[in-house]
């Protein structure tokens, strides 16, 4: 398959001026797959009403068919086509947090979307991206777009056009080149099918942010991996580079733990670099432990780069103390890592 590339980087503010916009829309209408930028990661989009198109998403990614997809929209009126009436609390959260990096799981009205999108569930995850190009594209095609991350299943999610092209060139009809994603981690997924709500997947929108709008509306109980995942990223190993990756919480004893660190990389905040074994390669994750936004933004780009550096045989990444703003990045690290080293553990 020849994969078309649409470079729209010069049309951030007015995508309607792009001369091949109709070609992108026609690709969706004909059941093709189009990778598109969002503020979180690049998504692999297809018409959520077209079962053959959605089936192609699973095939292109090598994705398990019981893993549900997120439907992307540009306006809340689109929800009337495929969701049951949404309660006032959820409406308020949507009003305050959309467009933005949060998906809401709400009751599904059957008959409009194809069955494959929901993974056989009676609920559907939906979100409204804030990325300028992604949002304008959704407005122009004016259809619900099912879009998981535009990568091979299990690999690090793509935050740049180059990441998508490496994984999916020849497997999809087209890729929209729209610069690097701002957030760098997938959206928060909030399960609104029960109350209090539950965070099915942590992201940039944290529990405290949600509860500033509606106090005490999110259950503290973590949703565990289950036989029937209700959101992407719950059941299967995700986000993993081919390079073996270990999370470290302590640098104590590391200097003498291996004969040589010459082929090892340490992915750490800048203020921790002096603690790393001297022979190892240093990769900056962020400035310090409070600079979580930068760490989120950099994580997947770093994981992609590990596999392109032949000098790196294994990698060690700094594990943050778990708190509200680090839940998302630690969730992704733990699904990507092979090992975890805490105080008292040996390499």
TrEMBL record:
* Protein EC: 2.7.7.87
Residue ranges constituting the YrdC-like domain according to the UniProt record:
18-205
Please give the SUPFAM superfamilies that the UniProt record associates with this protein. Answer: YrdC/RibB
Q: Which Pfam families match?
A: Sua5_C, Sua5_yciO_yrdC
User: What EC class is this?
Assistant: transferase
Q: Which InterPro entries match?
A: DHBP_synth_RibB-like_a/b_dom, Sua5-like_dom, Sua5/YwlC_C, Sua5_C, T(6)A37_SUA5, TC-AMP_synthase_SUA5
Q: Which UniProt keywords apply?
A: ATP-binding, Cytoplasm, Nucleotide-binding, Nucleotidyltransferase, Transferase, tRNA processing
The catalytic activity, as recorded, is: L-threonine + hydrogencarbonate + ATP = L-threonylcarbamoyladenylate + diphosphate + H2O
Q: Where in the cell is it found?
A: Cytoplasm
UniProt xrefs under PROSITE patterns? YRDC
As one GO molecular function, the record gives: L-threonylcarbamoyladenylate synthase
The family line of this record is: Belongs to the SUA5 family.
Functional note? Required for the formation of a threonylcarbamoyl group on adenosine at position 37 (t(6)A37) in tRNAs that read codons beginning with adenine.
Instruction: Please identify the protein, giving its name as recorded.
Output: Threonylcarbamoyl-AMP synthase
